[in-house]
UniProtKB/TrEMBL annotation:
N(1)-(5-phospho-beta-D-ribosyl)glycinamide binds at G22, T23, N24. The lineage of its organism: Bacteria, Bacillati, Actinomycetota, Actinomycetes, Kitasatosporales. This is Phosphoribosylglycinamide formyltransferase. Catalyzes the transfer of a formyl group from 10-formyltetrahydrofolate to 5-phospho-ribosyl-glycinamide (GAR), producing 5-phospho-ribosyl-N-formylglycinamide (FGAR) and tetrahydrofolate. Pathway: Purine metabolism; IMP biosynthesis via de novo pathway; N(2)-formyl-N(1)-(5-phospho-D-ribosyl)glycinamide from N(1)-(5-phospho-D-ribosyl)glycinamide (10-formyl THF route): step 1/1. The record marks D163 as: Raises pKa of active site His. It catalyses: N(1)-(5-phospho-beta-D-ribosyl)glycinamide + (6R)-10-formyltetrahydrofolate = N(2)-formyl-N(1)-(5-phospho-beta-D-ribosyl)glycinamide + (6S)-5,6,7,8-tetrahydrofolate + H(+). The active site is at H127. Its EC number is 2.1.2.2. One of its GO terms (molecular function) is phosphoribosylglycinamide formyltransferase activity.
Length: 222
């Protein structure tokens, strides 16, 4: 099968989805904040965050967006009669901002069929383990319980499985004898934030293609 190529608009319009503290969102915000130090040869930010969506209230992620003057929306499963209706509502709320790319940055919900039909191939997720090991909601806890000596983080495209989409980039983090889940997760997140900013910047700046027999090999640049 021929390669599929994507070249987002410049700057790419990003919608970021969050469920928690939003430190990955903050890293994405800081990287394109007015007055940031421009990278050599790249004076223009590669992306702009046009909205931040959440699946719950009372979390700090959306507050970070509001402080930066970025619109937010909340779409809670419990406010909808069925999961399909929630999927439809989240798809519409996101589509209203006409995103080129969507980043799931600690968004703890499986995205629905309609959402992926609309935005498939343009939804990026960050996961705190080296996929395909330790997918799901407890990637850090599961790696620790298994006794892995090296874990890390994965930035990948979202498909209709649980953390099964094409891998874009990964970074390793050593597991220390004294680690508990929270200490290990914090060290992973330090690495993860840098990786996510770098990957989203490159996707937005250079475009990307999916190649190979299974269309799983991601090549940055077009
Ligand atoms: C991140 O470590 C992210 O990989 C993880 O939630 C954290 C969010 O942190 N996501 C998952 O576990 C998804 N399965 P943040 O809210 O501080 O950005």
């Amino acid at each position: 099968m021929a390669a599929q190529s994507f070249r987002p608009a410049r700057p790419a319009r990003l919608v970021v989805l969050v469920s928690g503290s939003g430190t990955n969102l903050q890293a994405l915000l800081d990287a394109v904040a007015p007055g940031r130090e421009a990278r050599p040869g790249d004076a223009d930010p590669p992306y702009e965050i046009v909205a931040v969506g959440a699946d719950r209230r009372g979390i700090t992620g959306p507050e970070r967006a509001e402080r930066a003057g970025i619109p937010t929306f909340v779409c809670r499963v419990q406010d909808h009669a069925t999961r399909e209706e929630w999927d439809r509502a989240l798809t519409e709320a996101t589509a209203a901002y006409a995103p080129d790319l969507i980043v799931s940055a600690g968004f703890m919900k499986i995205l629905g069929r309609r959402f992926l039909e609309r935005f498939g191939g343009r939804v990026v997720n960050t996961h705190p383990a080296l996929l395909p090991s330790f997918p799901g909601a407890h990637g850090v806890r599961d790696a620790l319980a298994y006794g892995a000596k090296v874990t890390g983080c994965t930035v990948h495209f979202v498909d209709d499985g649980v953390d099964t989409g094409p891998v874009i980039a990964q970074r390793a983090v050593e597991v220390l004898d004294e680690d508990d889940e929270s200490a290990l997760h914090e060290r992973i997140k330090e690495v993860e934030r840098g990786l996510l900013v770098e990957v989203v910047g490159r996707l937005a700046r250079d475009g990307y293609s999916l190649e190979g027999p299974e269309m799983r090999r991601v090549r940055l640049g077009s």
